[in-house]
Amino acid sequence: MTRPAQGSDAEKVLKGIPISMGIGMGPVFPMPEAFPFDAPAYQVPPSAVPEELLRLGRAIAAAREELARIRQQAVAKVGEDDARIFLVHLQVLEDPALQQQVEKEIREVRVNAEAAVSTVIQRYSVAFSRLEDPLARDRAIDLKDVGRRILHNLTRQEAPESEAPSVRYILVTRELYPSDAAHLDSNRLAGIVTETGGKASHAAILARALGIPAVSGVREIRDLIARGGSMAVVDGREGTIVLNPAPETLERYRSRAALFDRMRVALASGPALPAITRDGTKVDILVNVENPGDVIPEDLGGIAGIGLYRTEFIFMGRNTFPSEDEQFDVYQMVLRRAGEREVVFRTIDIGGDKRLPYFRVLDEDNPALGWRGYRISDEWPDLFIVQVRALLRASVLGKVRIMLPMITTVEEVRRASALVRDVRLDLVRRGVKVPDKVPLGVMIEVPAAAISIDTLLREVDFASIGSNDLIQYLLAADRNNARVAALSQPLNPSVLRTVNMIIRAASSAGKPLSLCGEMAGSFYCTLALLGMGLRRFSMARHYVTGVGRLIRAVTVKEAEATARRALSFATTGEVKAFLQARTREIFRKMKVPIEEADEEF
Ligand code: PEP
Ligand code: MG
Fold first, then answer.
1. In a mutational test of the pocket of ligand 1, which residue from 288, 349, 475, 478 has the highest number of ligand atoms less than 8 Å from its CB?
2. Counting atoms of ligand 1 from 1, which one is nearest the CA of 308?
3. What is the pTM of this model?
4. Is-cis flag, bond preceding 274, omega within 30?
5. What's the rounded mean pLDDT across residues 204-220?
6. Res. 196: pLDDT tops 80
7. What is the DSSP string of 292-342?
């Protein structure tokens, strides 16, 4: 038996927030601290002020050229949308207020340009990073990134070249700047660990687009930075880092990673779509989308449509609200790419943990129970009308559905419905072509909506269960709080009963119902949901193969028996044990090695 290692070589597990899925292992490589770096700072005589201003101007111009070039490279690598952050950087660079502050510092404090840039950027970013809003804190990162670029040009230093190891490594840094993330070579990176940056930070979005496992929110980052060269494992699904893994731990992760790969290959070895049960019942599989770049026509074969388009992402990564035309451009692009398939555009769902830096709301004690989702559109018709106009104008180009997030009462739906009707009439009066009917639906995410589902359904054309929020509200367990994560289980008996009740109500009302939360892509839930009568599943593209193959492996009768049994248990543990066994049995017959890797889902 191996003796446990002592002291700094001992295995240590660190917790963070999972931001990009997968398992990666390799030596820790601390990224050089990016800002501030050693820029010369000195006083200048009044006669040297014009020269310093000139140097500043030249450095800004050079930074502008660099950013435009990086943006082009990023577009080629990760697509227009995920590279949008560099437009934000260009805007920061061109911000007259920022430039004036730096110039003022040179003129009035009489310091060289480097010192002026450092001071102003630090001042701004400290102010930003003190804000509660995680998105504003992300803006501090963007600001420092731009500041660093100007400083490099002033000092004519090259951006720090990475002396990264030649093997695949784990990049560790307090903050990952978007421009660093765009430069990352996914072939050499096994994982990314950061102290700051939430799930919606641009660096996180880029890490996901590049398929690199990543964990953020790691408090002990300094410890980790001090351990350059030590072996580590990053589990981007669990949000954990294992430093100095013992040989057994490393072996366990290696086999999990290998099993995960084998499972992916095995799943892809048989047909998944169309998702028709063995006795001929057709189930629609739809996908959830955040960025128009993710709608790839070649990827949509057999997919019934986009069951959830999270439009709030159009509002992120910028400094102002997108105009009606800007929104229209995105909607029309998505519709063209989706072709004949329906696209469910969920209207802006901000508030809670999704904030916009340019739309300040007062701090709330309970943001998840506060001003979020449709409540904002309801109170701010100006915002909502622009979005509805853009959506209605685009709706002649494809099959548009409009869906309202976080609906709580029938009155809200009636107000939204009246507003959509008025906007449509106004467009028609102005001679704009709009279809006679654009279906309007609601997300069922609030327990009140679930309980009054029958009355809500009378007001709308369709509904979709947002299980992520429904679970957090049903179980009173914040979906972003790791402390209560164990409670947030889709297989909790109360969750299953509520979902079952909603499915039955939609079926009696004859209204289409989908489920678009993470639960729709969870293999353990597939058979139970199918057996309860769900016929529309909307999920991240990643899960389609597994869910499709499970549906094709059973008859509706078998799924119904599974659902009945699952609904009869009193505890989450019992439900999970039962559904796990049932699901594994089916996968085993398909020769899919699910045993450990299914925890990835
Ligand atoms: C949900 O709550 O299940 C959902 C799909 O919406 P979001 O995850 O964007 O809140
Ligand atoms: Mg939601």
1. 349
2. 5
3. 0.71
4. yes
5. 78
6. no
7. GGG--GGGGTT--EEEEEEGGGGGSSSSSPPPHHHHHHHHHHHHHHHTTSE
